[in-house]
Specification:
Shape: globular
CATH class of the largest domain: Alpha Beta
Number of strands: 14
Order of helices and strands: HEEHEEEHEEEEEEEHEEH
Strand content: 25-35%
Helix content: 10-25%
């Protein structure tokens, strides 16, 4: 339950919940036999009535409780996550994501420096095996979905650059694949990053943090929510300065 202690509630009302997810915690189980701690198991423990909110996830052919979760973050990505507390707000929030009316911002530390800032990456994502890719040639491609990511440079270092990244679509591994596609993979990315490239001292995970959300609640309030960089990532930046 150690990861559960690191979950903090950033905003809550009668319709929704926004939490700050720690790195190292999965959002939902991969399948029926996955007994890892997850955001779903924390939600069911803390909010027993939330278990059946939203349609079930289908993972490995097995349905599991969604527990009101609208979107997801990768296990090693920290930051803000929106959860619906009833089915009406689930449908409302889902429609906001579908129509791109929720603005999401991430901090990502990448290798090198993008040629343009601000920049827009507009490249569809496909899947070959278990990996996502922007290279859509070949016969083994499983799917292809449009994807758009905007970014600006926040801070430059000797070998690395801190980016403010705003995905306009919500594809699996979108930010990671898009940044890799322009030659600036995220530092600490074990799947899409280059093998053997030097990481900053003290970095033990993917340097990606969902730090800001902007949207309107079901009852019409305009929210801008932020979550500071976690201490482990802040220490890395301090050492680079």
């Amino acid at each position: 339950m150690e990861n559960f202690k690191s979950i903090s509630i950033v905003y809550e009302d009668e319709n929704l919940l926004v939490i700050n997810k720690p790195a190292g915690l999965i959002v939902h189980p991969k399948n029926a036999t996955d007994n890892q701690e997850s955001v779903v198991s924390w939600l069911i423990k803390e909010y027993p009535g939330i278990e059946n909110i939203g349609e079930p996830f289908i993972a490995s052919g097995t349905a599991s409780s969604r527990a009101g979760i609208i979107h997801r973050l990768d296990k090693d990505t920290s930051g803000l996550l929106v959860i619906a507390k009833n089915n009406d707000s689930f449908d409302y929030l889902k429609s906001l994501f579908k129509t791109r009316k929720i603005q999401k911002h991430y901090y990502a530390l990448v290798y090198g420096r993008p040629k343009e800032s601000p920049g827009i990456i507009n490249a569809p994502l496909g899947r070959i095996g278990l990996k996502r890719t922007t290279r859509l040639e070949g016969t083994r491609l499983i799917d292809s979905k449009s994807a758009i990511t905007e970014y600006t440079i926040k801070q430059s270092f000797n070998k690395y650059t801190l980016l403010d990244v705003a995905p306009k679509t919500g594809r699996t591994h979108q930010i990671r694949v898009h940044l890799q596609s322009i030659g600036c993979p995220i530092v600490g990315d074990l799947i899409y990053g280059p093998k053997g490239w030097q990481k900053p001292d003290g970095l033990t995970r993917l340097f990606l943090h969902a730090y800001k959300l902007e949207f309107s609640t079901p009852d019409g309030k305009s929210l801008i929510l932020e979550a500071d960089l976690p201490e482990d990532l802040q220490k890395v930046l301090s050492m680079l300065e």
